[in-house]
């Protein structure tokens, strides 16, 4: 493992997406760091009162990153570090044109504003592992340099491929700017609302018949920790983020005390929407491959180059979500354990 970079606190940090869980709580953490002179929180929406209180001394600016005002903010606050945490897929029930515009056009404006602002020396982009896609032809582990066999052609994954392109273009045009791209695996935790947490909270979980998706998770605290670490430690490059270990979708459903409903792949998204009764964002077509085949990341560079070590494994992340999250078991853990003991006992007796 290479030597961990020395702590290098930025002087003035601007964080986009301050009304989101990751963006808002990152602002709160950075505002508690006395080595950082100024923290600026940006979003087109006002964060909830609890989040605003946690932001402490940070200054909140309500502005749309798709507008030129973002460039004025970078100049006015003499920003040297930008954390672009705004790209989102949880703000609408479907991947609407408005969400796509916010992700792609907004990111293009942020990159352009960074390029025109001499004080900016660092950009940290929260991307996603969804850029790899998911199919039966995928490798066992995705490394940062291994392209997907079938890249996403639509949806959030497609958006983030374009967004990453803007960030790399910035690095070429302004080689004095350190660009760090983080690709977190499916984020799960007791507080953050994601499509995976919504999916695993269903008492009756539709799964693709005949498939055993291999999954990794990244705990919400580790997602925040990685963003904070990358903000404070200057390392160029692209990094996968995930907790150690792999679980199958069936294991995750059973561990939550829920029941599987095997269905054809074409019925997965519509049936999930019916079972959830429209109360949460539905599964989109670009997620069906992930739930059928899964996706596993190689995280060697996360440790050896970025120098970040998650506190939670994939299984610990899942268990913490089950223990403290919004999901309620249909079948208790004790009932599953009793069933397992009976199966083991019966198998032993037959030997």
UniProtKB/TrEMBL annotation:
Alphabetical list of SUPFAM superfamilies matching this protein: NAD(P)-binding Rossmann-fold domains
Domain NAD-dependent epimerase/dehydratase residues, every copy: 13-240
Organism domain of life: Bacteria
Pfam families linked: Epimerase
InterPro entries: Epimerase_deHydtase, Lipid_A_modif_metabolic_enz, NAD(P)-bd_dom_sf
Coiled-coil ranges per UniProt: none
Protein name in the entry: Putative nucleotide-sugar epimerase
